[in-house]
């Protein structure tokens, strides 16, 4: 059995999509980041950076439980555990890992900053809004050019696509329109109709959409001194 510590964020949905693609059985343990669940001592033992997602695989490589935090590491772990969605060929494998790292080190953090300064900052800072909106556009351009002559980011559908797709879903939060990036749009539209992607995105879909307004306890838990 796999325990998934989860909340309805792009990084969380990476893992529910991956698990659905692989057909692995798991149970969801909600970590309500608006209420500060991520700071609980038991969760911090699993995810010392107090971020979701995290997992505990009770059937680890040596038959003993193994905990993993950081969404990219979790995707790599499940790919290696199952031998799927990550090529064994060295060149093809490195293509996937490069684009996974592009998402983890570039697209995720920068698009997250666009979310923050466009939606959650206690005051509108024009420089920050322009800075991260332009960076979002640059990153979308990188992806669009990459997809000009290929169906997916790194050959076949892989963990690189699974990592990137959830961060493109809130494109309007980032000040973008998909019609501006026709290759990215084709890729996005193809992925969103995959049955496993729809299954992964349905996890906790009944959860009330959260909003962290400056000054509220939710905002403090996510962006304030507590975070």
Automatic annotation (TrEMBL):
<dbReference type="Pfam" id="PF02798">
    <property type="entry name" value="GST_N"/>
</dbReference>
<feature type="domain" description="GST N-terminal">
    <location>
        <begin position="1"/>
        <end position="86"/>
    </location>
</feature>
<dbReference type="InterPro" id="IPR036249">
    <property type="entry name" value="Thioredoxin-like_sf"/>
</dbReference>
<dbReference type="InterPro" id="IPR004046">
    <property type="entry name" value="GST_C"/>
</dbReference>
<protein>
    <recommendedName>
        <fullName>Glutathione S-transferase</fullName>
    </recommendedName>
</protein>
<dbReference type="InterPro" id="IPR036282">
    <property type="entry name" value="Glutathione-S-Trfase_C_sf"/>
</dbReference>
<dbReference type="InterPro" id="IPR040079">
    <property type="entry name" value="Glutathione_S-Trfase"/>
</dbReference>
<feature type="domain" description="GST C-terminal">
    <location>
        <begin position="89"/>
        <end position="216"/>
    </location>
</feature>
<dbReference type="InterPro" id="IPR010987">
    <property type="entry name" value="Glutathione-S-Trfase_C-like"/>
</dbReference>
<comment type="similarity">
    <text>Belongs to the GST superfamily.</text>
</comment>
<dbReference type="InterPro" id="IPR004045">
    <property type="entry name" value="Glutathione_S-Trfase_N"/>
</dbReference>
<dbReference type="Pfam" id="PF00043">
    <property type="entry name" value="GST_C"/>
</dbReference>
């Amino acid at each position: 059995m796999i325990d998934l510590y989860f909340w309805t964020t792009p990084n969380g949905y990476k893992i529910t999509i991956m698990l659905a693609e692989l057909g692995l059985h798991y149970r969801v343990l909600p970590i309500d980041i608006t209420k500060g669940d991520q700071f609980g001592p038991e969760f911090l033992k699993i995810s010392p950076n107090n971020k979701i997602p995290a997992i505990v695989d009770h059937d680890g490589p040596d038959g003993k439980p193994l905990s993993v935090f950081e969404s990219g590491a979790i995707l790599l772990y499940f790919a290696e555990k199952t031998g799927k969605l990550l090529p064994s060929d060295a060149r093809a494998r490195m293509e996937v890992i490069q684009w996974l790292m592009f998402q983890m080190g570039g697209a995720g953090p920068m698009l997250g900053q666009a979310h923050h300064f466009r939606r959650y900052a206690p005051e509108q800072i024009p420089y920050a809004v322009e800075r991260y909106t332009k960076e979002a556009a640059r990153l979308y351009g990188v992806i669009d050019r990459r997809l000009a002559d290929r169906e997916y980011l790194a050959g076949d559908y892989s963990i690189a696509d699974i990592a990137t797709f959830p961060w493109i879903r809130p494109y309007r939060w980032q000040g973008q329109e998909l019609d501006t990036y026709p290759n990215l749009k084709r890729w996005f539209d193809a992925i969103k109709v995959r049955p496993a992607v729809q299954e992964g995105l349905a996890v906790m879909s009944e959860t009330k959409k959260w909003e962290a307004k400056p000054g509220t306890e939710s905002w403090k838990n996510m962006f304030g001194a507590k975070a």
